[in-house]
Amino acid sequence: MMQSVAQQNPYAFAAQCVGRLWTLVVANNGPKPSAVVPVVVRRVFSGEQLNAFNLPIDGDRGATQGVALATEAGLTRPETDALLHQEYVSIPRTRVYESLGSNSDGWFSIAQLMLARLARCAVVVTVYQSSKSDETLGRHIDLWYGVIVQVRGSKTWYMEPPDGEAVQITLNPGDVLLMPQGVWHDVTTPSESVHLLFALDTNRPLSSLAG
Question: Does residue 208 lie within any of the structural domains?
Answer without folding.
Answer: no
